[in-house]
Amino acid sequence: MITPTNPLEWLISAIGFVIAIGILVSVHEFGHYWVARRLGIKVLRFSIGFGKPLWQRTGKDADQVEYVIAAIPLGGYVKLLDEREGDVPAHELPRAFTRQPVWKRIAVLLAGPVFNLIFAVFLYWVLFTAGVPAPRSIVGEITPNSIAANAGLRYEDHIVQVAGKPTDTWEDATLGIIQDLTDDGTIHMRVRGVDGSERDLELVTGNRSRELTQPDALLPGLGFDIWQPRVPAVVATVMDNTAASRAGIKKGDEILQIDDHPIEDFSQLVAQVKPNPGRAVTLQIRRDGQVITVPLTIGESDAGGKRIGLIGIGPENKPIKTGRTVEDMVALQKYGVIGSIGHAAAKTWDTSVFTLRIVGRIVTGNVSLKAISGPISIAETTGFAIRQGWRFFLSTLALISISLGVLNLLPIPILDGGQIVYQLAELVKGRPVSERAQQLGQSIGIAMLILMMTLAFYNDIVRHLN
């Protein structure tokens, strides 16, 4: 859905990726920098990016901190005065990181992830103050004999709760579904029908949580999709040099049937055409009050490396009247300047907890390893977000900032969380962790990161090849 389809979109994705990573790394490293300086620890360098410096400046204060923007925009670092990295003049030893009390060292290490979370709160505050239109969790088409159909879910049901938590929007509902799914394989829902009555449902997935948590597998695997207004299968436009134009289909034709499949709306027509490129079919059409049959061979197109069928027509923009209206689809999340603070903090907290739970479920095997995404997916997501407008981009930036903050707190030696573990161990033992143990931990941490990055790149590449 978000894969770039032309060079311009790829360029936008690359630019979006660099902007997003640049902003979030700057926030993260500024947290380390700001707290270190406030606690009297000497900072030697503040770098955004790695490798050859593209821009460099020395501060005019007594510390003469080097500020650098480097060539590889995939991270950054703050270099502190540290005895482990070289000789430190005697008069500066009190300002070395290694000479600080444990609480100060932990404060500096925590500052990066905490600043990422604070930044997410700020972004959500901006969004909630300005107002964020979000699609309501209204159910669309139901696949016959699917998990959703067997549970009694119906077209145009509004999912109002998942596992007892309110879910007015699709974002809330999706997060709730994934969380409940990975707990025990059963999704507990409360839905409100078109008539206003509420029902409790259980979607039993058995042991399919790994399968359903693969990218783009959740809703199709459960057997329902997001509600969209139905439009009649009446032809409004016929594109030149397409299967429809060659078959003689005209504007105003109403498609009633494709082979033996009755067509009630345009989405049903798409569902029959899209998976069948190159197939010869017979259409039953109503034209000027007469029903005629038209033979047609479905054309094909390439979408992200996949062959899909199409016949080259566009529908009328006249939704069929049902129990829902287009206005029912959208909930405006807008609060006052003060009220937005609480909602932004709650949103950041809930998303952070969800991220931690998913990481835990990946470790235990309840969530597919294919859910791990890498730089290619992040670039596609940020590029897509930029094309959708500033609200979508800020929301995406907040999600990535939360992920960066939470993942950096994991107890992996090379990350902030792992370094904090060393400091806590020193607090318990009364002496620093040995250099040998720290070097071993660093080696393990680097190996784990390389493994995760390799897996993330592999998932990105396989997703594109498929």
Automatic annotation (TrEMBL):
<feature type="transmembrane region" description="Helical">
    <location>
        <begin position="390"/>
        <end position="410"/>
    </location>
</feature>
<dbReference type="Pfam" id="PF17820">
    <property type="entry name" value="PDZ_6"/>
</dbReference>
<keyword id="KW-0378">Hydrolase</keyword>
<keyword id="KW-1133">Transmembrane helix</keyword>
<dbReference type="InterPro" id="IPR008915">
    <property type="entry name" value="Peptidase_M50"/>
</dbReference>
<keyword id="KW-0482">Metalloprotease</keyword>
<dbReference type="InterPro" id="IPR004387">
    <property type="entry name" value="Pept_M50_Zn"/>
</dbReference>
<dbReference type="Pfam" id="PF02163">
    <property type="entry name" value="Peptidase_M50"/>
</dbReference>
<feature type="transmembrane region" description="Helical">
    <location>
        <begin position="12"/>
        <end position="35"/>
    </location>
</feature>
<feature type="domain" description="PDZ">
    <location>
        <begin position="200"/>
        <end position="268"/>
    </location>
</feature>
<feature type="transmembrane region" description="Helical">
    <location>
        <begin position="106"/>
        <end position="127"/>
    </location>
</feature>
<protein>
    <recommendedName>
        <fullName>Zinc metalloprotease</fullName>
        <ecNumber>3.4.24.-</ecNumber>
    </recommendedName>
</protein>
<keyword id="KW-0812">Transmembrane</keyword>
<dbReference type="InterPro" id="IPR036034">
    <property type="entry name" value="PDZ_sf"/>
</dbReference>
<keyword id="KW-0479">Metal-binding</keyword>
<keyword id="KW-0472">Membrane</keyword>
<dbReference type="InterPro" id="IPR041489">
    <property type="entry name" value="PDZ_6"/>
</dbReference>
<feature type="transmembrane region" description="Helical">
    <location>
        <begin position="440"/>
        <end position="458"/>
    </location>
</feature>
<comment type="similarity">
    <text>Belongs to the peptidase M50B family.</text>
</comment>
<dbReference type="InterPro" id="IPR001478">
    <property type="entry name" value="PDZ"/>
</dbReference>
<keyword id="KW-0645">Protease</keyword>
<keyword id="KW-0862">Zinc</keyword>
<dbReference type="GO" id="GO:0008237">
    <property type="term" value="F:metallopeptidase activity"/>
</dbReference>
